[in-house]
Amino acid sequence: MQFSNVTAEAKANVYFDGKVVSHGITLEDGSTKTFGLIYPGVYHFATEAAERMEIIDGECIVVLDGSDDSSVYAAGQYFEVPANAGFTITVSEGIGQYICSYIETV
Amino acid sequence: MQFSNVTAEAKANVYFDGKVVSHGITLEDGSTKTFGLIYPGVYHFATEAAERMEIIDGECIVVLDGSDDSSVYAAGQYFEVPANAGFTITVSEGIGQYICSYIETV
Prior knowledge:
The structure is a homodimer.
Chain A: E1 2-9, E2 13-15, E3 20-26, E4 32-38, E5 41-46, E6 51-57, E7 59-64, E8 70-74, E9 78-81, E10 86-91, E11 96-102
Antiparallel strand pairs in A: 1-3, 2-3, 3-4, 4-11, 5-10, 6-9, 6-11, 7-8, 7-10
C-alpha cells in the first residue's frame, strides 16, 4: 500500500528493543500515520488519540484493555482502539506489518 | 531525516528473516531510495545499480567485495558501492539504520 505526496521520516521509532518499529509519514492534509513491523512477542501499547491499526502482512492477536476477548487480525483486516486506552498485541510467528492511523472516534 | 513530496510504500521488504528490513520511497524526480533497519548480524548484499548507503543510526562494519579492508561507519557517515558488486555489512550490537540511494557512479 502506497501513500503519495507525503513527508516520510527515514529514521524509525524503535520500541521493545526493536521488536516493534515504526516509521512516520505526514499526509498532504497534515494528518499523520505510522507503518512498521512487529516481530514475534507480546506487547502492550497505550493510546493517546484513538487509532486504527490495519494489518498489511502477517497475523496478530489483539486484546483491548479492559476486555477479556482476543481477536485475530490478518493482512487486510483492522482493529480500532479508543483514545486514552490500550491494547496488547501478540505476534506468534513471522512478522506482522501494520499501518496505524489516528482517527476521530472509535 | 525527512523526505518531502514522496510516495512511500508502507509494506517493508524483509531480508534475512527480518534481520534487515527496508521501505521504499519514490521522490518527485522519479528516483527511488530505501530506508530501513539492520539488526545485529553479518549480511552480504549484491548491488545492481551503484548505491550510497548513509548510516543514520547505530554503527556498522563494511567490507566491499574484493577488498580486504573493513571500515566502520556511524550515524552521519556513508559508503558507496559500485554497480554489479557487493558488500558485507556487520552490525555488532544495537540496530543500524540506513538510507540507501542509487547513484550514477561511484
